[in-house]
């Protein structure tokens, strides 16, 4: 074990003094206010690795005004301590906070204290909470770049009342706005409001933005269609139709046009996750010029495998070598040698289906960048092909590994610096 650095020794000794009753009582000033923000952040993070947490140990650290990163898990403190904690931060310690993550669903009185805290965090850039938070309390956080509210209580519409929406339009730096717990297309009008109010927005979380783009396109002049800067999209086109076969068929036929409109509205997309309801939409995806990460679910194309495979390979050829992450879901008998021959620079490949080798594999290709390989099922030839051509594989996951034998295990162990290997 390497010797501890002087910094580690000082950090541990400082924590010991923090937990020693009465040690700092004679100090007229808060000694932690003399430290840099980085050291205070480190002390707070290091304290939270300890087995037991007591608010009294953290009072000086939280009130020094230098803490930037604040996070809290439930139930890390008692209700009474949470009350004191928020009061302490709100009154003295929140002026430097830039990051808040709270994995707890607070009660109403605790929630109001959280909202008071938000009103006094002018430097806040990143907010992640698991409780309802009236977005209007963020109006003073003009540096906010990311808001994630993981709450399932249904009050997300509060943001879209005129008063709230107009107030929050001052958050011009917002890039991630993930408050949409309803992941399907029924929230499209709310997405439109968010897109118009926040011009730098790059992500709406995992909520489907395709229907919003389709409506924007239909209600715009063809020669003056607006464009937005979303970089990450999830397109599922999952409008509830109560299992009506006729409506489902109609929606599926509309799908290619919806995707075409979405690509015109979001031309800068870098990451796309899409459930393909009609294989013709794959032609439109060729127009995404900046795509580096692509996840495709072929659940609704199982009856047209050969046609879908042909269109997939054509799409991948059009995207070009810039693609780094490829995820294929509900797609079987995928010729991995053809995919990797065209994309030897893939860093991440995930296949929820069966991998096969198609044709001859005499030519040797080296996949220098492949770090993660996740495949549900593959035969020995496919596995050998991928392992013997991968130079730096770190994570390997096989859902069905009946093809494994001692020789393949030797290839896995000796051929790659694996940090994680899992098979079933």
Task: Summarize this entry quickly.
The chain is an alpha/beta fold and 424 residues long. The chain contains 14 helices and 15 strands.
Would you mind describing this structure in some detail?
Helices cover 36% and strands 17% of the residues. The radius of gyration is 26 Å and the shape is globular. Helix 1 (6-18) crosses helix 2 and helix 13 packs parallel to helix 14 (406-415). Strand 7 (232-235), helix 9 and strand 8 form a beta-alpha-beta unit. The model has no long low-confidence stretch (mean pLDDT 82). The strands form two sheets. Strands 6, 7, 8, 9, 10, 11, 12, 13, 14 and 15 form a ten-stranded parallel β-sheet that branches. It starts with 5 loop residues before the first helix and ends with a strand. It has 424 residues and is of the alpha/beta class. The longest helix is centred in the middle third of the chain and has 21 residues, at 245-265. InterPro entries: LRR_dom_sf.
- Calculate the mean pLDDT score and round it: 82
Number of DSSP strands?
A: 15
**Low-confidence parts, pLDDT < 50 over ≥5 residues?**
none
Please write the string of helix (H) and strand (E) elements. HHHEHEHEEHEHEHEHEHEHEEHEEHEHE
InterPro entries: LRR_dom_sf
Name some characteristics of this structure.
424 residues, alpha/beta, ten-stranded parallel sheet, five-stranded parallel sheet, 14 helices, 36% helix, globular
């Amino acid at each position: 074990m390497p010797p501890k650095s002087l910094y580690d020794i000082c950090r541990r000794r400082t924590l010991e003094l923090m937990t020693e009753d009465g040690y700092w009582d004679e100090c007229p000033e808060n000694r932690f206010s003399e430290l840099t923000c980085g050291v205070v952040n480190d002390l707070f993070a290091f304290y939270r690795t300890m087995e037991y947490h007591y608010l009294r140990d953290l009072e000086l650290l939280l009130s020094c005004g230098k803490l930037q990163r604040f996070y809290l898990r439930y139930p890390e403190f008692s209700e009474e301590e949470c009350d004191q904690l928020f009061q302490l931060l709100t009154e003295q310690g929140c002026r430097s906070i830039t990051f808040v993550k709270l994995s707890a669903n607070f009660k109403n009185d605790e929630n109001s204290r959280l909202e008071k805290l938000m009103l006094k965090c002018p430097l806040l850039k990143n907010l992640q909470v698991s409780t309802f938070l009236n977005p209007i309390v963020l109006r003073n956080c003009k540096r906010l770049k990311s808001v994630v509210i993981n709450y399932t209580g249904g009050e997300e519409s509060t943001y879209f009342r005129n008063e709230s929406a107009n107030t929050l339009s001052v958050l011009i730096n917002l890039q991630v706005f993930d408050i949409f717990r309803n992941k399907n297309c029924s929230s499209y009008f709310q997405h439109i409001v968010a897109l118009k109010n926040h011009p730098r927005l790059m992500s709406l979380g995992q909520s489907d933005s395709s229907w919003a783009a389709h409506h924007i396109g239909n209600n715009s002049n063809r020669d003056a269609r607006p464009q937005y800067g979303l970089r990450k999209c999830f397109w599922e086109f999952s409008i509830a139709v109560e299992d009506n076969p006729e409506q489902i068929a109609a929606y599926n036929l509309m799908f290619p046009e919806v995707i075409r409109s979405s690509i015109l509205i979001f031309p800068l997309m870098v990451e796309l996750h899409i459930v393909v309801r009609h294989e013709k939409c794959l032609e439109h995806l060729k127009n995404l010029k900046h795509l580096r990460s692509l996840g495709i679910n072929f659940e609704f194309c199982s009856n047209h495998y050969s046609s879908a495979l042909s269109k997939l390979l054509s799409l991948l050829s059009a995207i070009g070598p810039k693609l780094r992450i490829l995820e294929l879901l509900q797609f079987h008998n995928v010729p991995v040698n053809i995919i990797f021959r065209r994309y030897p620079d893939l860093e991440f490949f995930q296949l929820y289906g069966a991998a096969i080798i198609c044709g001859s594999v005499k030519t040797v290709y080296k996949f220098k960048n492949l770090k993660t390989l996740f495949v549900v099922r593959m035969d020995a030839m496919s596995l050998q092909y991928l392992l013997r051509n991968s130079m730096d594989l770190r994570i390997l996951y096989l859902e069905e590994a009946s093809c494994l034998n001692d020789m393949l295990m030797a290839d896995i162990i000796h051929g790659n610096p694996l940090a994680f290997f899992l098979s079933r």
